[in-house]
């Protein structure tokens, strides 16, 4: 299989086949991997998706459903299927994927689906549904490979082969005692390499990374990527083995957290779906804009206060917007660098202090450089030296404030336990607007009138 | 090992131990995992890092160096070590990690390091140094597990155990023909489960994902995450097996690309190091601010053009900044959602068209809602109905423009092959500034004078 990118032709071929007879469609679908069909679904209507899911073998259909973007709502597709077909597909799903999808439905619909399943599957999924979505418990799969530490090499290998029948892939083998307490891990390689007479307890690595079920998913992602692990076991508070989280789930978490960061920093609610409709977008963004309007009233009240100054030096109104705008952009730069840095690593007090100091210096230099340009402009264009001095000072001052607030507000939020990305450009530009106007107009009314 | 977060105490303990005798330090370091020491390094001086690297066993030292953040320059640390010690450490590194670090040094220093290594290691690294850093070739490790398809189960297992001696972990076994052509993959599990008489060629899965050496790293990351693979084999143009890329490298790529996105969208050069000093920050941000200043002159020339209007209705200068500022924020919202969406998925023409239409609608509604608030304010506070109408229309119009430009500019850039994140808030707010002022002041000079 070559690296794959869906293009228009693929979508047209599928759409055409949907119009024709079932066998043509079936034959065409065989050319695609389940995850490719899941991507194709984004360009197809709900009806077409349902038809395709009903045609595919249950095993492939369940893979497609588990790979569908949450934004095109696999749970709604599942809901619409005939109960028998639905059970067939859900039973093919990994427990964690089944749980993720079913959890999006109202409770009564969840129960309807679960009561049609076989008892063991239903109980696994019911159990997983009790964990918060963004914790290790909500992320984990309860299907794990585990062997008792008392087994011999031969017994362990038989056990692993037996358990792995139902799993697509596994990366580490968990070693437990008679009470299902996790006591360590062992790799398949080490078992194979060992002598035939060996017991698992002699091979076990008991210096390993694990997480508790209530650990936040961001913490899980950090651990897995810090220790380069392909999977992490999940335990309860008394070390009973509950499940495992694999790197592919962590990659999804990272993408999700990164989307949230980029949205929040831009003043969009973190739960806006990227491909959502306009109603969701208005709901997610309007509150932020109204907050921004409130802060804009604050900034404009500064301007109103200085109206006499402006009416005497009208040319100030052109410079006002430059200084406020530049401050906003410089603050956004400092904010982005700081938020991203905090989200990748925790900073010590000393590092935090040096970050603010750095942004102060950057603001001073960038402010003076841009201040000089605008000073020369005022000198040449408005032939007014004092005006030049005023705007130079206001530009420099405002970019210093931009640097300090852009760095210190997210650092402060992190320190008090609030997500630093909430310090969006909307909040931060209030400071640069208000201070920019205050500086420019205050200096102007002192020095120019 | 419990989930780990470095705190002040750890750093203080290490700093204290650095002052005391070597044995105290050695004993203390034993408590930490290599990746933890790498994080500790961020709070230590270069001299302290060098001392610790020299004390640690070569195996651990090399792990620490490979886990060090690129921003604290492992290559400089390596450069400073005694040549013998350095070779010892480099030889313990995975080839891809060694290449990443050495590639940061000037060519003559690279050669000095390479000529001290044993011939095989040096040739592997020299080979890897020829690939571009951000391609599959630049990312891959040349240490792979591979077996010839003609081997029997027993021969293959022996071969795998032999090859895996030098590797920490492996996830898939590559199957090659007599000419090192990659013909498929097989899992260790499937080999173990098979009968003793079986040949590898009977087990091989030939429907697998692979990448060419020159494939862009972003494409590699998309494939690995789309197909949930723990590793991807890398081949040359004639299918010779060159190496493999593992999920942990892909996680690093994703974090790197996400950092670049968030920086670019905020008007910061993508190569600014998050923990860099103020000189680097000024170099990275000043050009963008100067561009912004240029566009601000454009916006302020609109204001200058309408100076007579402003001097007759001075209260307009307060509303000007509100309408421009709100437009900038609404544009940033639309931009963030669109850029993030494009970076996760490619959009069809139809999806792109609907995205712009959606942002138009969102702009219209959010504009009218905020316009209404500001209209009421003008009515009550300035007792001027016509002024209220003017600012209502300007607010609505500017937020529509914000939505359209925020969505269409990144979509256009993507279509012509430019990174859409370059459409930073700096570029986009030029539109909302200029149009905001034009709308407000143009309407005001028609309707209010």
Automatic annotation (TrEMBL), chains A, B:
Q: Where in the cell is it found?
A: Cell membrane; Membrane
Extract one GO molecular function annotation from the record.
Answer: metal ion binding
Q: One Pfam family of this protein, by short name? A: MgtE_N
Coiled coil (UniProt feature): 1-31
List GO terms (cellular component aspect). plasma membrane
- CBS domain location is 140-203, 204-260
Give the membrane topology, semicolon-separated if more than one. Answer: Multi-pass membrane protein
Sorted alphabetically, the keyword list is: CBS domain, Cell membrane, Coiled coil, Magnesium, Membrane, Metal-binding, Transmembrane, Transmembrane helix, Transport
Coarsely, its chief localization is: membrane
Q: Which residues cross the membrane?
A: 318-339, 360-381, 387-413, 425-444
Regarding protein family, the annotation reads: Belongs to the SLC41A transporter family.
Q: What does this protein do?
A: Acts as a magnesium transporter.
Subunit details: Homodimer.
Q: What is this protein called?
A: Magnesium transporter MgtE
Which organism does this record belong to? Pararcticibacter amylolyticus
Encoding gene per record: mgtE
């Amino acid at each position: 299989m070559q690296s794959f990118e869906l293009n228009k032709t693929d979508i047209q071929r599928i759409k055409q086949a949907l119009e024709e007879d079932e066998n043509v469609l079936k034959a065409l679908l065989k050319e695609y991997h389940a995850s490719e069909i899941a991507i194709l679904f984004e360009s197809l209507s709900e009806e077409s998706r349902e038809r395709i899911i009903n045609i595919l073998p249950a095993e492939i259909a369940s893979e497609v459903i588990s790979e569908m973007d949450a934004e095109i709502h696999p749970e709604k597709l599942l809901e619409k299927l005939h109960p028998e077909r639905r059970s067939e597909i859900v039973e093919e799903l990994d427990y964690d994927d089944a749980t993720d999808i079913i959890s999006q439905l109202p409770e009564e619909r969840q129960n309807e689906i679960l009561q049609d399943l076989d008892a063991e599957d239903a109980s696994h999924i019911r159990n997983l549904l009790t964990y918060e979505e963004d914790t290790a418990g909500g992320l984990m799969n309860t299907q794990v490979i585990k062997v008792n530490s008392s087994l011999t090499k031969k017994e362990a290998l038989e056990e692993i082969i037996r358990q792995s029948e139902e799993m697509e892939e596994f990366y580490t083998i968990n070693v437990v005692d008679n009470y299902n307490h996790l006591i360590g891990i062992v790799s398949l390689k080490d078992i194979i390499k060992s002598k035939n007479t060996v017991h698992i307890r002699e091979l076990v690595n008991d210096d390993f990374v694990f997480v508790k079920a209530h650990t936040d998913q961001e913490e899980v992602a950090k651990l897995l990527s810090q220790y380069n692990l392909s999977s992490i076991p999940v335990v309860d508070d008394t070390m009973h083995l509950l499940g495992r989280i694999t790197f592919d789930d962590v990659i999804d978490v990272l993408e999700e957290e990164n989307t949230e960061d980029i949205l929040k920093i831009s003043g969009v609610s973190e739960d806006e779906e990227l491909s959502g409709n306009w109603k969701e977008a208005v709901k997610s963004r309007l509150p932020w804009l109204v907050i921004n309007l409130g802060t804009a009233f604050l900034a404009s009240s500064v301007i109103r206060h200085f109206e006499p100054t402006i009416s005497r030096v009208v040319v100030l109104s052109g410079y006002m917007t430059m200084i406020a705008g530049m401050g906003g952009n410089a603050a956004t730069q400092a904010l982005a660098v700081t938020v991203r840095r905090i989200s990748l690593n925790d900073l010590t007090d000393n590092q935090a202090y040096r970050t603010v100091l750095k942004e102060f210096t950057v603001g001073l230099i960038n402010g003076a450089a841009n201040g000089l340009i605008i000073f020369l402009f005022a000198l040449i264009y408005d032939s007014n030296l004092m005006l030049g001095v005023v705007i130079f000072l206001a530009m420099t001052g405002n970019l210093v404030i931009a640097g300090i607030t852009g760095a210190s507000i997210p650092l402060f939020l992190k320190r008090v336990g609030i997500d630093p990305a909430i310090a969006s450009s909307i909040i931060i530009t209030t400071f640069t607007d208000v201070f920019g106007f205050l500086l420019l107009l205050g200096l102007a009314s002192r020095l120019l009138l």
